[in-house]
Amino acid sequence: MAYEMISFDCYGTLIDWELGMKNALRELAEKKNISIDIEKAPENYIEIELEVEKERYRKYSEILTISLKRLLKDVELSPEEEKIFVNTLPKWSPFPETREVLRELKDRGYKLAILSNIDEDMIKKSIDLIGIEFDCVITAEQTRSYKPSHKHWERLLEIFNLSKNKILHVAASYIHDIIPAYELGIKTAWINRNKEKRERIDYEFSNLKPLTEIL
Description:
Order of helices and strands: EHHHHHHEHEHHEHEEH
Strand content: 5-15%
CATH superfamily of the largest domain: HAD superfamily/HAD-like
Distance between the termini: 8 Å
């Protein structure tokens, strides 16, 4: 077994982050009778969120609220409406193949970890939806930093005392995960669900299923 630990980003990789965000925005648009470009919103949101995360450490629930307000800067939102991502994110669904792939990897003896830009209370609810027990969960709340900072991986290496060549990191975000893992010398599997055009580093797949074939 070349790898001992398979680490995953959660939202966008295991949980359908984009669908969850679109559904929340669609609900908000219908409630307020306003027009929102639902298809472009996730891409625009990511750029805004990256900038908010660079300002200083905040809990992710606060990041979600601030980023939404900046995304919809011309829309007047009530305090409850500002929290639509905070309130719905813990209910966002896993991708169809998530549970099956994780179960097979776990049954084959791999340690499984999540490295996520999230708060502790939110990730616990998402893991309940996934229905798989992870050996380690590292959050932004623990490291007080957000990927692409290296601190999530540094904490993982410290906890398990593993060589970097024993870890495969699996993620959908090229900027948040693939690049920093590469910088650290950790092999990656990029889950390129949206067919982005980027330089391939290690593995690249359109979903999680091929992981069970290469491992």
